[in-house]
Specification:
Layout: E1 2-4, E2 16-23, E3 34-38, E4 42-45, E5 49-51, E6 57-59, E7 63-67, E8 79-82, E9 86-93, E10 104-112, E11 118-124, E12 134-143, E13 146-147, E14 156-163, E15 167-176, E16 185-192
Parallel strand pairs: 10-16
Antiparallel strand pairs: 1-2, 2-3, 4-7, 5-6, 8-11, 9-10, 11-14, 12-13, 12-15, 15-16
Length: 193
Amino acid sequence: PNCRAPSYRTWTAADRYVEGVCSDNGGSGCIGNASKYFNTTVSMASVGIVYDNAGNSSVCEREAVRVDKDAPYAPYFNYLNPVANISKIDYSCSKNDKKSSSPNICNATVYIQNPNSHCTYEWSARESDFGSGVSHSLFYFESNGIGADYCNWTEKCNFNSGTNPSYIVLKHKSVDKVGHIGPELIINFNVVQ
């Protein structure tokens, strides 16, 4: 017998029921179709095995199922690239499981060479998503209690902290292609001048 299952081009956050249709032209005939219910993250899979009335069997080929149940995540602080007037950065982070709803928290100390200069930072997160992939990122910066607008980049975001900042807070979330929002990554920067 032969088995044919559909191949899905688009990702979904919903469960997906997939049926493989059995055919046995000129043979003893199929006993039935194969089917499988997918409710966890999966990219490609087989729906099972079909049988004919003569005892023959055939494994349904792996097809694209594309179910995404996991939120994206930035598991740790990747790097902060100093653009201007920074001598060094010390940082440490806690790391949570990718499925955790609690945030990853990082603390950093930024050493500025010239206290009268504006400080510009470039942030990049190492993002991952086991399903549909990361669509975009949301960044929020706050300097001395004054919040900046969210910026929406797929990878990088620049921020000017202003003159003589004492502390900076950066918040980062990853969003995947089916709309899952990952746990927040919070970085607290203490500035030493």
